[in-house]
Amino acid sequence: MTLYKEILSITKKIEEALKNEDLSKNLALLIEERIALFAQLQSVDKQNNREIIDCIEQILKCEERCAVLAKDKRTMLKKAMQDTQNNKRRHIAYSRQMASPY
User: What is the rounded CA–CA span in Å between residue 17 and residue 20?
Assistant: First the structure.
C-alpha cells in the first residue's frame, strides 16, 4: 500500500512541477523516481484492497491532470519558440534593409 501512496505523492509533485514555470530542475528527477517505483510494483503482490483501488483511482486522475498541464505547457513553449523565430527573422530582414544602399 505504501508503494501506491509514494507513487501518488510523486505524481502530485509532478503535477506541481508542471504548474510552475521552471520545469528543468525537478521534473526529470521526479519522473525517474516514479519509474523506479513502478518497477518495484511488479514484485508486490496484487491485492484487491479498497484502499489500493482508491489510491490507483487518485493516481489516474492526477495523471490526467498532468497530461492536460503538459499539453498546455507544450503549446505555450511552441508559441514562445515561434515568437523567437519570428523576431529573429524580423531582425535579419531589418538588418538587410539597413545595410542596403538604396
Answer: 5
